[in-house]
Design a protein that fits this description.
single chain; 125 residues; 2,3-Dihydroxybiphenyl 1,2-Dioxygenase, domain 1; 4-stranded mixed sheet; 2 helices; 39% strand; Glyas_Bleomycin-R_OHBP_Dase
Length: 125
């Protein structure tokens, strides 16, 4: 098997709201979109970030379509975590876990997008 691309695909009530959040605050760009579907990319991220409207008939099997990333974290490793934290706070992004440093050297914080998807920025210190 040769993998040529990868994607993280999430069911959300409003794909456009999540996509706009990721574009505005995290630097993603729209790769493609259709009714109920938005695919985003960043050249420095190894996957596409896809938002699908919950209840799309094309999502099969339908019984596995769940809520917006329930129990899921989208983690992005960054440089300059403190600068990013201050920037996102100034932009009014909802911070759900304030910045902290774990004993093993992970410095991180978590934010929530408009659909409740939790995004964690982390830097190893």
């Amino acid at each position: 098997m040769k993998v040529t691309a990868s994607a993280l695909s999430l069911n959300v009530a409003d794909p456009t709201a999540s996509a706009d959040f990721a574009k505005t605050h995290l630097g993603f760009v729209e790769d493609m979109a259709a009714d109920g579907f938005v695919s985003l990319k960043r050249e420095d991220v190894g996957f596409s970030l896809v938002f699908l409207r919950t209840g799309l008939e094309t999502f099969k099997p339908a019984h596995i379509a769940g809520a917006a990333g329930e129990g899921l974290l989208i983690a992005l490793v960054v440089d300059g975590i403190d600068t990013e934290y201050e920037r996102l706070q100034a932009e009014g992004v909802p911070i759900v876990t304030p910045i902290e440093t774990e004993p093993w050297g992970e410095r991180y914080f978590q934010m929530s997008d408009p659909n409740g998807v939790i995004i964690q920025l982390v830097e190893w210190v």
